[in-house]
Structure formats: C-alpha cells, structure tokens
C-alpha cells in the first residue's frame, strides 16, 4: 500500500512538472526530492543493526542533494544565475554523489561478503567509461559552450562518481541473487537516470548558458525511482549477506579488464588523430590510475584461482572428516615410494577394535569425533616423510621408512591405545589391530596393501579391545 501511494504521488508530480506555472515548479520539485528522505529512513529502520551502513550513507547523500537543490532554487529565483548551475549547489551535489557511491559499494560488500573484486571492478568501470563519456561527449560540448574550468571539474567528478555507482549496482545485479529483486533494479534505474540527467543538462544548454527545464524531469524521475526502491518490500534483501561471488580468472573477465584498460587511450587517441578536441591530461591520469588497478585486480584473480586449485587438490587427496590423506593419495604415495626403491619401506594397516559398539551406542556424531581423535593421535606416531591416511571407514594405513620403522611406529600406536578417548563427553577405550609388512623386490602397491591387510585380519583375531594387536607379514 505504501509503495503504491508513493509511486502514485511521485509519478503524478514528475509527469505534471512542466504543466505547473514556471514560478511554482520548485514546489513539486522539492516534494519529489525531499520525499525520498523518509523513504530511505524507513529502509534504514527495516535493516538489521549490523547492515545499516548503506542506508546511512544514502540518507546523508539525499540530505546533501536536497541542500544543493535548495541552494540551486534560491539562486535561480533571486536574481542569480537563471538555472543555478555552476554555483555552490555543485559542491553539495558532488558530496552527495560520493556518498551515494559509498552506499553502493557498501551494498556490493554486503552482498558479496567483502567483495573487494566487485569494488575494484566498480572503480575500474568508473575511471574507464566515465573518462570515455567525458572525453568523447561532454568535453566537446562544454568546450563549445565556453564553460568555466571550475564548472567542468564539478561535472567531471560528478560523472565519474555516478558511473562508478552504476557499475557497482550492475555488479550486484549480475552476481548476486538480490540483484534480481525489484528494489535493486529500481535503484539501478534511478542511478542510470541520474547519469542521463547529468549528460542531458550538459548537452542541452542553449547559447545563453540556460538549460531547458525538461531536464529536471529526468532528475525527478531518478529521485522517484530511488524512493520507490527504498519503500519496496524487497528492500530487506538489499543488505542481507549474499554468497561470495565466483571470481574466476576467465577469458571473459580478462577481456573486460583489457577493454577497460584500452578504452580511454583508444578513444582519446582516435579523437586526437581526427583533429577533434581531447583531454590529454585525462588520458594520462586515467591510464596512470587504470594500469595499477587492473594489475591489482588480475593479481587478486590469479591468487583466487590458485587458492581454488589448492582447494580442489585438497578435496581430491584429503579425507573430508579427518583431514588425512585419502585412499587415492595413499596409493599414489606408496607407488612413488616404491619407485624410489623398496629398501626399508614398510606399510602398517590399522583397523580399530571396539569402534562399532561406540558408534552404535553414542551415535554417528560421536563416532566421527572418535575417528578425528584417532587420526590426530596417529599423526604423532610417524616421522618426517611418513604418511598417515584414512583408507576407509575405521581403517588407517601408515607408510614409513627405516630399518626400525615398524617397531617404532607400533610402539607409538600401542601408547595411543593405552589412553582413553573422549566421545560425546564419555571416556571410551578402543584397540587397534595392525598388520605390518616390509617391501620386497618386485612388490607392487597391491602386493603391499594386500599383505598388510591379511596380516591385520590375523591380528584382529586376538580381539584385544583397549590394546594393540600386531602381526608382521
């Protein structure tokens, strides 16, 4: 109901703006621009306490924009510049734009769980596309109009900031589930109209330096869309933490970064070749800013790719419960060890005695807790380059080298079984049946594992719960 009322009132004021008498148009203008403030206050109150930063920034941004609007109206209606442009109002507009950019970046970070890559992409987009828009579209028009340098600087900063804000919101729209909500789409459309309004205001100025009043309708529509975004029911999803984006070093992402890096020099250089006015300082500064930004972005993407590869390798070679090497990694390690020669190579195949009763009585969670504890103790039983692996279920395989490896490791496992374990808050005792074998000439991995496995079953016949049972094959 609130959304419908706001949309209806704001829509009517925007649509009828030019119908109002010229001397009274400041009232519908202020009604629309000020109407966004309570809308954002409502969104602020709806947001969780830990996720209110974007709304505080947006509220302060709207406050500065409205102060600028009041200054603009006062100057325009009291004998100053007819349009109020190029005055102190621009300072408030610039501050409001920067805070709006801050709000959009805060949304990116909330949605992407600290999405630094998204923030960098937004900055890169702002510098590259904003620079092209300025150099190819706005600067030639402002040069023809003989606009003062101070006014040009204000417009330049405003355009860069708005393009960055639009880039940040497009980032949310493309990579976050919240980007599909009406609130994000309305806000993104509002930012896009703000950019369109700035471009129209710069291009539509007549010979006397006066811009037509219809350009204000574009700004008013932008305010109305931002207010509608704040009162829409989906606004609650805007600052909810989303999933971290998939930030891969893909050909598409590299193409994007390459295009952004080359865009300003290409457009500016092309204009210079054609004898058209161009901003050489802008080209130099934008290139100086973009090169390190793109390098940092590529470095982060490469680091994330390496981390993903390491994670995949860990998933492929590690047991998910205990963190030990899994069966595949164990067999690979054993094959590599045999390749170095069978001398002093030993395999110990361990099976827990008494594990099943603990698992059945206390539950699977307690069984998992017990397996993790056993794995932690087995790690302390080996030396240097020795390997401990979880072969499956409650079976563990240890691979070690040394003439006394079996005796030393078996003694440590015996000490392991002499002390109770804790599972589900209870003290429990288990034994370990160990089948050990030493490598022989021409042995394969299957030969060693099978011999150790058979020896383990021989040891298991002793059924020594709470102690060590060892058979050497």
Radius of gyration, in angstroms, nearest whole number: 35 Å
Instruction: Please provide the count of β strands.
Output: 7
Class inferred from helices and paired strands? alpha+beta
Low-confidence stretches: none
Keywords: Membrane, Transmembrane, Transmembrane helix
Organism: Paractinoplanes abujensis
Pfam families: GGDEF (PF00990)
Transmembrane segments: 5-20, 26-44, 56-79, 91-108, 120-141, 153-174, 186-205, 217-238, 254-274, 280-299
Overall description:
The protein has 15 helices and 7 strands. It is α+β, with helices and mostly antiparallel strands and 473 residues long. The protein has 2 domains: 313 residues; 146 residues, Reverse transcriptase/Diguanylate cyclase domain (Alpha-Beta Plaits), CATH 3.30.70.270. It has a 5-stranded mixed sheet with strand order 2-3-1-6-7, with helices on both faces. Helix 15 links the parallel strand 6 and strand 7. Helix 1 packs antiparallel against helix 8 and helix 12 runs antiparallel to helix 13. The longest helix is centred in the middle third of the chain and has 38 residues. The radius of gyration is 35 Å and the shape is elongated. The N and C termini lie far apart (81 Å).
Question: Which descriptors apply to this entry?
Answer:
9% strand; alpha+beta; 2 domains; Alpha-Beta Plaits; two-stranded antiparallel sheet; 473 residues; five-stranded mixed sheet
Secondary-structure topology with pairs:
Elements: H1 2-15, H2 26-46, H3 53-77, H4 89-111, H5 116-145, H6 149-175, H7 182-203, H8 215-231, H9 251-273, H10 280-317, H11 327-339, E1 345-353, H12 355-362, H13 364-379, E2 387-392, E3 395-401, H14 405-418, E4 421-423, E5 426-428, E6 431-438, H15 445-460, E7 468-472
Parallel strand pairs: 6-7
Antiparallel strand pairs: 1-3, 1-6, 2-3, 4-5
Helix pairs in contact: 1-8, 2-3, 2-8, 3-4, 4-6, 5-6, 5-9, 5-10, 6-7, 7-8, 9-10, 12-13
């Amino acid at each position: 109901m609130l959304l419908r009322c706001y949309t209806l009132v704001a829509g009517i004021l925007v649509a009828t703006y030019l119908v109002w008498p010229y001397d009274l148009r400041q009232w519908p203008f202020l009604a629309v621009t000020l109407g966004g403030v309570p809308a954002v206050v409502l969104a602020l109150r709806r947001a969780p306490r830990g996720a209110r930063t974007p709304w505080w920034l947006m509220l302060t941004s709207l406050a500065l924009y409205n102060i600028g609007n009041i200054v603009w109206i006062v100057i325009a209606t009291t004998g100053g510049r007819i349009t109020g442009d190029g005055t102190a109002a621009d300072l408030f507009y610039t501050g409001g734009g920067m805070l709006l950019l801050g709000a959009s970046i805060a949304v990116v970070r909330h949605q992407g769980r600290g999405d630094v890559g998204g923030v960098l992409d937004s900055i890169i987009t702002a510098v590259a596309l904003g620079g092209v828009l300025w150099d190819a579209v706005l600067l030639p028009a402002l040069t023809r109009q003989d606009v003062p340098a101070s006014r040009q600087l204000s417009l330049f900063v405003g355009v860069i900031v708005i393009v960055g804000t639009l880039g940040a919101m497009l980032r949310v729209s493309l990579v976050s589930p919240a980007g599909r909500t009406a609130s994000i789409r309305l806000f993104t459309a509002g930012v896009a109209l703000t950019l369109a309004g700035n471009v129209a205001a710069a291009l539509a100025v007549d010979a006397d330096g006066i811009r037509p009043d219809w350009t204000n309708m574009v700004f008013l529509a932008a305010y109305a869309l931002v207010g509608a975004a704040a009162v829409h029911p989906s606004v609650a999803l805007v600052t909810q933490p989303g999933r971290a984006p998939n930030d891969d070093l893909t050909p598409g992402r590299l193409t994007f970064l390459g295009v952004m890096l080359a865009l300003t020099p290409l457009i500016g250089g092309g204009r210079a070749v054609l004898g058209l006015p161009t901003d050489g300082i802008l080209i130099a500064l934008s290139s100086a800013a973009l090169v390190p930004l793109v390098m940092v972005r590529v470095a982060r993407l490469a680091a994330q790719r390496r981390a993903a590869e390491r994670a995949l390798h860990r998933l492929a070679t590690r047991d998910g419960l205990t963190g030990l090497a899994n069966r595949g990694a164990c067999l690979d390690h054993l094959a590599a060890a045999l390749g170095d020669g069978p001398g002093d190579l030993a395999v110990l195949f361990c099976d827990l005695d008494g594990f099943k009763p603990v698992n059945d009585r206390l539950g699977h969670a307690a069984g998992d807790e017990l397996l993790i504890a056993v794995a932690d103790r087995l790690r302390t039983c080996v030396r240097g380059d020795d390997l401990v692996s979880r072969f499956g279920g409650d079976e563990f395989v240890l691979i070690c080298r040394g003439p006394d490896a079996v005796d030393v490791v078996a003694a440590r496992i015996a000490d392991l079984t002499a002390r109770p374990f804790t599972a589900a808050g209870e003290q429990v005792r288990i034994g370990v049946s160990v089948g050990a074998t030493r490598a022989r000439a021409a042995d394969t991995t299957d030969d060693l594992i099978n011999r150790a496995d058979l020896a383990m079953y021989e040891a298991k016949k002793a059924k020594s719960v709470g102690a060590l049972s060892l058979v050497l094959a």
